[in-house]
Design brief:
The protein is mostly beta strands and 401 residues long. The protein is 6% helix and 36% strand. It is built from four helices and 28 strands. The strands form seven sheets. The protein has a six-stranded antiparallel β-barrel with strand order 8-9-10-13-12-11. The chain has a six-stranded antiparallel beta barrel with strand order 15-16-17-20-19-18. A four-stranded antiparallel beta sheet has the order 2-1-3-4, with no helix packed on it. A hairpin with a 2-residue loop joins β23 and β24. The radius of gyration is 24 Å and the shape is globular.
């Protein structure tokens, strides 16, 4: 357990404190807590959790002479009970991403109208009692990405979709260094957005932001270009995408999208300076994917330039291309090999058992989910988008448990 970033021990944890940390002291000389306190709890196999231990700041003003003795904070209670969520039950589904090394050539761009209609359903308006902002679904199982500064100190946020549906989204992870937080809603089948790694981002390309500015209409859209890409220490750690797409209060946590509907960054902040306009920053999608590696053992899931084929060791009595077990063969699709470490991993394609590795398979165009399972190893999961006549070799290294 950490308190304000300092490791203090393990739970159960107890510490003696002055009474003035729990209630206002009666004199100016009494002990007061002069800073906020945040606890961070981590345990292998569980989602890390941050809790705000204090409330404040409050002003200490003498009732007799009216002197202001400065700000203070109070602990919310003298006992905190925290329940950690199992990572395997929380971070379900698959995350889709595009790697520059897997993109075979130019990809078609969407019209602005089609881009909005495809991506907007995956964006949500997030609100607590004191803050509001934007988030977006990254899996069909209800995992939402947003900014840490929106989620810190909150147990849950109210998520509202463009069609007006409201859902409770519990905060399940806040990164201690990056401005990234993850929330989880109950349910399945949510529209979600794929990522494009920073290696695919080009200076000058068109981008679009979907936002929920506090003083304007919800789910507004703004358009701009990528002004620059790289490190920018003034904004914080990570790789940043500078854009002239307007980023206003309420945009925090929303997606910055390329012209193919892929998230290239999370809108995080706007440069506010005299005589300076049109400079906003989004933390790159690659930074978010690095965070997701911690919960999805196989890491991000490539979704472009990938075709999977299978010549598997089949279970007794099974037929390789039986339509009950796999998609029908479509002319023009290439054959690709699947291998795994360790060998002999079970292959599940779109939740149907196919056989074991090594294998080859033909797939129809479109998106498919590939899962490899092996005893005493974490499941290896990829969401793959099959392009016509594209080819790839899948080599899966399953992480030992």
């Amino acid at each position: 357990m950490q308190i304000n970033g300092v490791l203090v021990g393990t739970t159960p944890y107890e510490q003696s404190i002055p009474g003035g940390y729990l209630h206002k002291t009666k004199t100016a000389l009494g002990a007061r807590l002069g800073y906020p306190m945040v606890a961070r709890l981590t345990l292998e196999g569980y989602a890390a959790k941050e809790i705000q231990l204090t409330e404040g700041p409050m002003s200490w003003v003498s009732t007799l002479k009216g002197h202001n003795h400065g700000a203070y904070w109070l602990l919310k209670t003298d006992h905190f009970q925290v329940e950690l969520q199992s990572a395997s039950k929380t971070f379900t589904g698959a995350v889709e991403s595009v790697s520059g090394s897997l993109v075979p050539g130019p990809r078609p761009e969407l019209s602005l109208e089609e881009l909005v209609s495809r991506t907007k359903p995956a964006v949500v308006f997030l609100k607590s009692l004191t803050k509001s902002g934007t988030g977006f679904f990254i899996t069909d199982t209800g995992v939402i990405a947003t900014n840490a500064h929106l989620a810190r100190g909150e147990e849950a946020l109210l998520a509202t979709s463009p069609n007006g549906t409201q859902l409770e989204s519990k905060i399940v992870y806040v990164d201690p260094d990056l401005d990234i937080a993850l929330a989880k809603t109950t349910g399945e089948g949510f529209p979600h957005l794929p990522f494009a790694e920073v290696s695919t981002v080009r200076q000058g390309e068109s981008v679009l932001a979907i936002e929920n500015p506090g003083d304007a209409m919800l789910f507004s859209v703004t358009k701009g270009i990528v002004s620059a890409v790289g490190r920018f220490d003034a904004a914080g750690p990570g790789t940043w995408i500078q854009t002239d797409a307007p980023i206003n209060p309420g945009n925090s946590g929303g997606p910055l999208l390329n012209s193919r509907g892929e998230v290239i960054g999370i809108n995080s902040q706007k440069l506010i300076k005299k005589n300076v306009t049109g400079i906003g920053f989004a933390l790159s999608a690659s930074d978010l994917l690095e965070v997701l590696h911690r919960f999805y053992p196989a890491g991000p899931k490539p979704s472009e330039g990938v075709t999977v084929s299978v010549n598997a060791k089949l279970p007794s009595g099974a037929s390789m291309m039986n339509t009950a077990a796999s998609p029908q063969i479509s002319p023009g699709l290439e054959v690709t090999e699947i291998t795994s470490d360790p060998d002999g991993a079970e292959i599940f394609l779109d939740d149907k058992f196919i056989g074991t590795t090594p294998a080859t398979l033909r797939l129809t165009e479109g998106t498919h989910t590939l899962i490899l399972k092996s005893p005493h190893h974490a499941d290896w999961i990829r969401s793959i988008n099959i392009l016509k006549e594209s080819t790839v070799t899948v080599k899966a290294a399953l992480r030992p448990i």
